[in-house]
Amino acid sequence: MSRLNYHHLYYFWRIAVVGNLTQVAKDLHISQSALSAQIKQFEHNMNVDLFERKGRRLNLTIHGHRVLDYANEIFSKGEELESFLRKGCINEKQHLSIGVLTTLSRNFIESFISPLLENPQVSFSLSSQGITHLLNGLANHELDLVLTNQPINSDQTDPLWQTQLVSKQPLAIIGPSSNIIDDNFPKGYQNRRWVLPAKNTEIRSSFHALCATYQYQPDIKAEADDMAMLRLLARDSGALVVLPPVVVKDEIEQGVLAVYQHLPDLYEQFYAITAQRKFVPEVLLTLLNQHIETEQKQSK
């Protein structure tokens, strides 16, 4: 039986993970034809078909999926070892690479990383991306941690990920401080306009359920899926918004906006996602434990 060629296995792994032979060839600085030939040689040596070629697409066969499981284990451990050798010296300054969902509240991010700002032995980098790129960054050990306000969808669920609730912020109706409504929702809100998070968000779903309870139909002026944009619209539109007060804390402190009322039992939840690995930086464990303990105390 032919000896396993780990270079070929690595090429297979990259193509299976990225899903695009042209992109992998570009990343590895080799020609597409040479990469394709290496994969064919690997399949020939192992006497197994790993891909089904349908036009320009490469789909994994049943054997390909099994080989991918082994390749994930082999190369993830290798990258984990490299990460440990690069970051794991206790006496040296530690660095964390943190990925954040592009739509996440900047005020929440600042609050989350505040312990790192106070630690002279820690440096960190922040990268804003979509959830798919963030999870790929975790899998490739480019990121140590991902912050999001969205739970991982069922089709993305994988034993590789560890998801922890690190904060739960109560939702409130917020609007211009010059025109506060004293009545409890929905009294007094009949002729007011709203700026709301996008329909696919948990906040919007929670508010929709609340409106349905009271048979209230909000007059929606605008909607957005980005917290930074919602913050600007809340400040400048004169409309009402449904947000955690932390998102617009500066505007509330300045007297531009005011909390009209907190909505009972409605929250925005923030999650920390990490990849399961043997070595986890001590500073990352400390940071997560701080926020988890704080959340547990507030929930009691």
From TrEMBL:
Residue ranges constituting the HTH lysR-type domain according to the UniProt record: 4-61
Domain of life from the UniProt record: Bacteria
Annotated keywords: DNA-binding, Transcription, Transcription regulation
SUPFAM superfamilies in UniProt: Periplasmic binding protein-like II, Winged helix' DNA-binding domain
InterPro entries on file: LysR_HTH_N, LysR_subst-bd, WH-like_DNA-bd_sf, WH_DNA-bd_sf
Family in the record: Belongs to the LysR transcriptional regulatory family.
Family annotation (PANTHER family): HTH-TYPE TRANSCRIPTIONAL ACTIVATOR BAUR, HTH-TYPE TRANSCRIPTIONAL REGULATOR
Protein name (database record): LysR family transcriptional regulator
Species name: Shewanella subflava
